Amino acid sequence: MNSSAKKTISLIALIVGIAAMAVALYLDFTGSQNAYRGGILIVGAVLVLFGIYYYPTKKHRKIINFIFLFPLVFAFGVTVLVPFICGIFYSLTDWDGVKMTQFVGLGNYIKMFQSKDYLYSFVITFIFTVINMISVNIVAFALALLCTSRVKGRNFYRAAFFVPNLIGGIVLGYVWQFIFNKVFTSVIAGSVSMLTDPNQALAAILIVSTWQYAGYIMMIYVTGLQGVPKDVLEASSVDGANAWTTLRRIKMPMIANTFTVCIFLTLVNSFKQYDLNLALTNGAPSRILAGKAVQSTELLALNIVNTAISKNQYALGQTKAVVFFIILAIVSLTQVSISKKKEVEM
Amino acid sequence: MKKKLLSAVLAGVMVMGTLAGCGSSSATETEKETKADTTEAAAQDDTAAAEDTAAGDTAAAEDAAESTEAAGEEAAPTSEPIRFMNTKIEIDEPLKAFAKKYQEQTGQEVVIESLGGGVDVNGQLKNYYAAGNMPDIFAYAADSYQSFKDWLAPLDGESWIADTDYAFTADDGTVVGMPFAVEGIGVTYNKDILDKAGIDPATLTTIDAYRAAFEKLDGMKDELGLQAVCSVAAESGQMNWSTGNHMMAVYIAQGQDRSDKSLIEMEQKGEIDKERMSQFADWVKLLFDYADQNVLISGTYDDQLALWAQGKTAFITQGNWIDPSLDTYNATFACGIAPAAFSAEETTGILADAPAVWGIYKDSDKIDACKKFLEALATTEEGQQALVIDCGMVSPFKSCKLEPTTPLAASMIPYIKDGNTYAWDWLMQPEGIAQNATGAVFELYAKDQLDKEGFVDMMESTIADYAAQQ
């Protein structure tokens, strides 16, 4: 077949394909109930792809790469990209979950930063994230050292520490709520539940969150520690390094990339804390701040859900979610770029 | 070349597969598939609802899924089935039984889709709407009316409207919702304990009567085996609906004429009646002071209920919806609902109203069939039997002669017969105010971090702030 015949065929395929897709989309947008519109769309898409593939230029076969990537890209687009763009769009409107009547520009963003509950949630989430990140990593690293040492039954410990992570946050929240409210108050007779004092309630969330997540992070540290080459450790012991020096000067620099990953994971996870927060306190207890009653443990994610669902202000909730995303992206990217500098290339 | 062609063909098939996968649900929308989707969603939601009854709920929802799927496959005898969205999972079975009977008699099929407790019902309805998959009949409450007001078909002229005080009317006065149950809020008492202490519940019509009764019971605690006088829970995270809605309801409507909306209108504007709020503060304080302190500041609904149902307290600040739970605790004592008489002035009625109503979707193509089905539920003997006896609810219809068998529902009947009830205006509070604002104030008051003046002032500023935010 010569190239001009190829050209004609592929051009015909392209044109027919585009036309078919246009017809199908037109039918869909005009609300037609024609059952064939899905089929027409697919046939059109296949014809277009065939046309591009068959068109005689140098790089036309590259379309194969795209076709193989397509299922993934399509799923990513439908579940992440499109909702994300819709979200940003809705944050600029007065959307109520069903319909929007007008654009309000940056009105929602201004309103958001004026609402004290959001600012409070912001501060409390920041505090929570920092403390939780530190505590989870310290506990996880300590457990990892234990599980890679020569202690008896280390495999059992490893499994045991990991188990809390297998339980869902909601269940865990209710279990621990029972422990704080019933068990602790009867073990220490006459005491009141930790969950009734604003500061202690935050500490309670920290305890449970660390308990839940440390085992998972421990696993990553264990993998890192096991990857430290034996010859380097041997050399250091020949040079007379004690356990502390080995840890500080050899192991920790060698697994710096593990630290990057773990700190990143805990940072993002603490910032997004929702299920535990919902089940354990759901924002309670309340505290008086500048003469106002505020929910003392309402973290950002919970605040966003409450704004959208319970206050029925979907656009404002969406706005908060957009800002939430931006902050999270900035913080975590900064952290990764700083940590990356500390890593050692083998 | 051949290899490449093969790979191109394979890739093409893959693309087609992907598109076909999405295409079938978005492009070629068949009735059956969307139905299966919705029931699936309901079943998932049920599983997520972490409640004691979760297991039961899921089982029920699975039943629902099975039955709807089966219904989708069968050819409907007359026309398409009516889709009925029920939001009270506990009445799922009686409703289905009635729907079946109804189909046998009229040939009209009705598919009941139930959503379980803890599900965000309004959000679910919005999802249905966005997906173009609205049920023909759905339940909504006055508090979510603003979201749904554009979707409701007028029901004016239906025969049951004259038969009830609780029909839901739109802003312009047309009836848009049919009530199916009446629920009551007051102070629920354990009659056996009161009898032993020599207190007549009928005298509990002023705050002074309550105070005297509480003092007397407090003095006889050991004798009666009481842990505390009342069972109250005011923790703001999980119990804000009890304080911020049901207790607040007393301030908003107790002693007011049903048509008098002045207090709720003030609240919507962000104002309060300070004098009344101050009396209300005394009432709340009285309940808090005589409550079990652990349950008061950290208890959940289950803790609160267990305390009362096990006979460890004489009173509980919950309404007649605790009836079905009494069996769980083997509670066999006599009980009833007394007025939440918060002031020195005598108030002899309880707060009773339809917590939710059934409305018809205005773009449904089966509005007349839906109206007939609702009418059958409201006026026929079988319908009343299903609602009152099988579902254990209090009928909102005057012509209904059936008496509920559960104790608290039965104790509401005299109030309703005498017209001695106050409206549930609390449903019209600014959306989410209990959870996001007033619940916290109640908790601070329960923890003694606020005194009476502090409570009144903070209520005033909190409500003002919240209304300004809306």
Range of helix content of chain B: 40-55%
Outline type of chain A = flat
Please give the CATH class of the largest domain in chain A.
Answer: Mainly Alpha
Number of domains of chain A: 2
Tell me the structural class of chain A.
mainly alpha
Q: What is the C-level CATH assignment of the largest domain in chain B? A: Alpha Beta
User: Topology as H/E string of chain A?
Assistant: HHHHHHHHHHHHEEHH
Shape of chain B: globular
What share of residues are in beta strands of chain A? under 5%
Q: Strand arrangement, largest sheet of chain B?
A: 2-1-3-12-5-4
Low-confidence runs of chain B: 22-77
CATH topology of the largest domain in chain A: MetI-like fold
Rg of chain A to the nearest angstrom? 28 Å
Q: Which architecture name of the largest domain in chain A does CATH use? A: Orthogonal Bundle
Largest interface: A-B, 57 and 57 residues
Using DSSP, what is the number of strands of chain B?
Answer: 13
Count of helical regions of chain A: 14
The tally of domains of chain B stands at 2
Strand-residue proportion of chain B: 5-15%
Average pLDDT of chain A works out at 89
The CATH homologous superfamily of the largest domain in chain A corresponds to MetI-like
Protein name (chain B): Raffinose/stachyose/melibiose transport system substrate-binding protein
Keywords (chain B): Cell membrane, Lipoprotein, Membrane, Palmitate, Signal
Signal peptide (chain B): 1-20
Region (Disordered) (chain B): 21-84
